[in-house]
Amino acid sequence: MAKNIYEKIWDKHVVFQEEGAPPVIYIDLHLLHEVTSPQAFDGLRQRGIKVRRPDRTFATVDHVISTINQSCPLKDPIAQAMVVAIEANAKEFGIKYFGLDSGKQGIVHIIGPELGLTQPGKTIVIGDSHTSTHGALGALAFGIGTSEVEQVLATQCLFQKKSPTMNINITGKLEKGVTAKDLILYIINQIGAGGGTGHVIEYTGDAIENTNMAGRMTICNMTIEAGARSGIIAPDEVTFEYLKGREYAPKGEDWLEAVAEWKELRSDPDATYDKTIEVDASTITPWVTYGNSLDMSVSVDGQIPTVEGFSDDGDKQKMESAIEYMNLKPGQKVKDIEIQNVFIGSCTNGRIEDIRDAAKVIEGKKVASHVKAKVVPGSQQIKRMAEKEGLDKIFVEAGFEWREAGCSSCLNMNPDNIPAGEYCVSTSNRNFKGRQGKGSRTLLASPITAAASAIEGRVADPRKYI
Amino acid sequence: MEKLVKLISKCIPVRQKNVDTDQIMPARFLISVSKTGYGENLFRDWRYDESGNENPDSLFNKEEYKNREIIVAGDNFGCGSSREHAVWGLVQYGIRVVISSMFADIFKKNSLKNGLLLVQVTPDELQRIFSIIEADPDAEITVDLANQNVVMPDGSEIEFEIDPFRKQTIMEGQDDTAFIMANEDKIVEYESRFNK
Ligand code: SF4
Q: Are B35 and A82 an interchain contact pair (Cβ–Cβ within 8 Å)?
């Protein structure tokens, strides 16, 4: 029977299934960070057991650390305890730890692909929602909760129900100045923040084939914001080119064998899905969120909708509440929103390609005097690479802060939070109330829209800078 | 996790409807590096006021209600945020069974994963249980998982449903992880078959 890529990977990973219970699947790669792992290790100690496959388990630290000086002890004692715990746990259980002095530390979803740990056909779990990022390389990757982290540490397996599938086929060429970020924000706007609920979404079409790995990761990363379980893209030459030579990627003969196997993963031509959606990329414009849910977004040259424009009572209520929290006026032009902060970074857009694109916009320009702007590379390796290319200087000269790797202003769990009442054009992935700090107002956009907005001091259209 | 086949206990009545997970385990106790210590913060804000003084009216603070293993709760117990810590708190406090007429969906999943038995009865049956345990706070009731019924002090029985797989794991005292661990041979076989 014809199979799609999800079904192909799934079938190879079912270990057993007890009657009346969900299937138990095998996990090829398990990555850990400091927030969701300590209690899981504690659980192992209570059971008196070891990590079953430390060779398939890797750890790093990203959520709570400072990006000004990575190694300084944190003011928040719980955050500090988490940093201490992950290092100690990695040591105690014999797990490879990419710590702050490793030169390879970074946001867990950035370093997996970067180190070549993330590979096509693998099942990958992390105690973190945005694990879907890794699906960009043709892996089946999804986030799990803390007790499941413990389960995978203990057994290398996971209870998991099979998900329904969805195919989003994207054709046409993105206009200049329109990025993968705009594409995924647009898709979520179209299908709704619950439009993919529970599904594994496979992206296909020439628009995807023509997108680089960084863009594919941005798309898969944000797939869960449509409620989906995971996003996945079949591996192709772009994927192989990206992976080749990376630290943990297969080498020599093994590489050839692996590539041959990976090529088989592509969905069969007559494979079916529970749902199919077609998207035309050529009509999409730079896209920005204005509300507190991912589907509340408009074109950068659009306006804040009016409450009356929604027919559903729930949508009306959502709109009213967002207008109040975000301090917006219905009908107001998005470009008229004066901003105080710009954040370029996160597992969505903290890769070298994102930083390069933003640097091109910012080169020779100045950040508006009332804006605090920062670039936070997704990993230590990205930071070094950018510095080698002189990108840090471009940003610093323009008035940006150039930071160390970490999750930073993506979430309110570290010293980089956005002050209450202030707007932030952010390249991250969530615009919920308080996400970037209590009372903070998030406007999600692409790295080049963020860069253009930094220059103008208000939400800006990046197209004129390209 | 301890096995649960048959349990005889006095009950703690929690009449309120829609008791959410933030009441069961307030958000400020979630950030921790340990998996223990949640029991003492169960229903923290019911049991203590803001300055940390014990609320003498809370049943959870009354000597005669300590060491009871069954909570009888109003409709929609465990609604709100999906935090698993709410279940950890209940289990670590010593609660083995919660009886109600409805449980929130994610709370139900989290409970099963952690071996907390949820007994769902009809609204009428729930009211009957409430009236019995409120008339006689020392009334003991029996939760018989093997026979899937609750036996009241007068000998009357209330039947309940449970997924057969979950029934088995709770009776054997296995949480999900322990269940998979007990199937180690299948994992080893899989690993050798797929060369992992
Ligand atoms: S960058 Fe943001 S979304 Fe990504 S892992 Fe860190 S906190 Fe989560």
A: no
